[in-house]
Amino acid sequence: MHRLKQGHWSKKHGDCCSSCGTTERPHYARGLCHNCYQTEIIRPTEKRKQWEKDYRLKNKEKHTRYDKRYRADHPYRMWAFDTIGGHKRKGFTVTTTVDELEELARGTTRCPICKCELKWKQGKQSNSSPTLDRVNNGKVINKDTVWIICNRCNTTKLDRNWDEFLGYCELVVNKFGKKK
């Protein structure tokens, strides 16, 4: 970042801060001193927050179209964002990043339990929708303690760990046997 020498103000804006009038610590742009630049440009003021809110409301349809297109073009990333956000809202400690979870998602095309193909499109969940399963059912989620399985398998597994789940499957098979 290019820094101007002390006392050197942009010719366009004059020889002092256009906001507070000081000649101390000029910023490299907009005719503001360093402090005013930080306050008015970097940290949003109430006026700027209101402008952003009005802009979003005025351009809601445009942003909705963009959001839908972005979600359709980036299903793995959006799934990772939504999954991490959902687990944080439920009180889990999430130590994995969106990038790590997205990488795991890109590498998982089929459910490792039932081998069905995972459907990565956004919208209503189906049996073959990808879900994040906690292997050890702990409150901490990181890339080493989770895997991606289909919604049907995750619903069946519930909060059982792997050994409990296998025991459950064995009970079902023993009780009802294999259909011929």
In short:
The chain is mainly alpha-helical and 180 residues long.
Q: Compute the separation of the termini in Å.
A: 74 Å
Report low-confidence residues grouped into runs of 5 or more. 1-7
**SSE arrangement, N to C:** HHHHEHEEEHH
Beta-strand portion reads: 5-15%
Proportion of helical residues:
40-55%
Number of helices: 7
Strand order of the largest sheet: 1-3
Mean pLDDT across every amino acid position = 85
Instruction: Please tell me what the overall shape is.
Output: elongated
Q: Sketch the major β-sheet.
A: 2 strands, parallel
Would you report the number of β strands? 4
Give keywords.
two-stranded parallel ribbon, 8% strand, 7 helices, disordered N terminus, two-stranded antiparallel sheet, mainly alpha
